[in-house]
Amino acid sequence: MNPTAPTISELIAQERRLTLPHFSYDDAYALGGLLVSMARERHAPVAIDIRRGAQQLFHAALPGSSADNDAWIDRKRKVVERYGESSYLVGSRFRSKGTTFDESSRLDPDTYAAHGGSFPIAVEGAGVIGSVTVSGLPQAEDHALVVEALEQFATTIGA
After folding, report:
1. 135: closest CA among 47, 38, 32?
2. Residues 6+ apart with CB under 8 A from 26
């Protein structure tokens, strides 16, 4: 898997398209299981995290991942929590202005990372209620894996 970098409009469209009708504890487990299956099939050395608000609902670390991936998850997730958009979209907005998130956001890069892989979990009528994050691949691939899993998951719950 070597996805090309999506445009800002494509990233915005992904977020709009992937608003879910609901998201429960069981949904978090199902989405997490789907991500684990997809990552294992691809031999992807990733860590996976799903949150609703401050509560961690799912976490998995696959062979080849490390504690560094958990640190990246925290930093990417904090971008989603702060901006309400995917970490990849936030980073792409800065890059489109000829700068970087680290240079121009005025946020601590040890706390925030606008690199692909964290995606907002949005529910119809409620907005962003959490995040799903993958770390371990190049940022475009982390992002693409999350989007692919959310697309498959959305079809199973009738989104």
Report:
1. 47
2. none
